[in-house]
Design a protein that fits this description.
The protein is an alpha+beta fold. 52% of the residues lie in helices and 15% in strands. It has helices spanning 10-37, 42-50, 69-82, 84-103, 106-117, 232-268, 280-308, 314-339, 350-360, 367-380, and strands at residues 123-126, 142-146, 149-160, 167-173, 182-188, 194-196, 210-221, 225-226, 270-271, 274-275. Strand 9 (270-271) and strand 10 (274-275) form a beta hairpin.
Amino acid sequence: MPVERLLPTPEATDLLALTRDIARDELAGAAAEGEATGTFPREVFRLLGKSGLLGLPYPEEHGGGEQPYEVYLQVLEEISSAWMTVGVGLSVHTMSCFPLAHFGTDEQRDRWLPDMIGGRTLGGYALSEAHAGSDAAALSTRAVREGDEYTVNGTKSWITHGGVADFYTLMARTSDDGPRGISCLLVDSSTPGLSAAPPEHKMGLTGSPTTELRFEGARVGADRLVGAEGDGLKIALAALDSGRLGIAACAVGLAQAALDLAVDYARQREQFGRPIIEFQGLEFLLADMAAAVHSARATYLDGARRRDAGLPFGLHASVAKLVATDAAMKVTTDAVQVLGGVGYTRDFPAERYMREAKVLQIFEGTNQIQRMLIGRHLAKG
């Protein structure tokens, strides 16, 4: 059964209906094969762009939907419930557009944003490095200004859409002034000196390529500097706050899919002459799974509504990311248990859901980092 949602406008209701149609007709049936073959569904993102779903939180003047985050995240949840690779890809692309949309000049936005949110170009977010993951301020990829260009050297790690993106939002060091020495550049993927390593071999999200990015004397125009020099870490952290809400919504979508699968199986599977859902042991397990999904959804919606109201939401984004991704890991694991032996086979998607859930606790700030951030908020009072 579709999730019952409280949406703010009739337009939002129509958007969710459109999203469900796309999720059912274009995504759900293709997910298993796409993940089994490791095929990246590039055409799906063009479809999302043409359908108006790739730029929902961005201004109408640049082709966006100008929808509140509360609506965008519920669209993201629906997509993730059908195919996690597409949901995570949409979240990453939206975060890759964030610096330009919020910190770029009018000229920069007019030049690049319409193609980004119209589906003609796909983005990647290049922040992490091998020795600067959780400690983003320690990054060492360097951009040196030489006239009207920057020369970029260094290696970025764990880049979603590496090798298939059309642009990368790059955080690079432009001075040795610690956290204040980082700047943001919008880099075209065809830039000479930029290359992607072969994709990582992952336990899940195999349809979504994750690679290193190598910058070897890459020349990037100074007109691609987003914000001022030294603003990069501030920009990156602001994007991550919104991105964490996105990952929370993806996690809820995955958990909802696992719950739906488990309930459907438990209704149909009979033992001792009756459906196993009638046994209290399974009934209570499914009830706990449902409670986890509903609670996780409430956390990301709370953060989104605060963001839409212009209130501080960093704490709430960390809480949502922590609660929702931990819930996804538990719910998907329990779904395998409900299905029993067949849950451990690839005849059902439960084992894929479980593999996909794990990375949600790791990227966009590990859940240990989220606990640290929440603790710091508490310490500040």
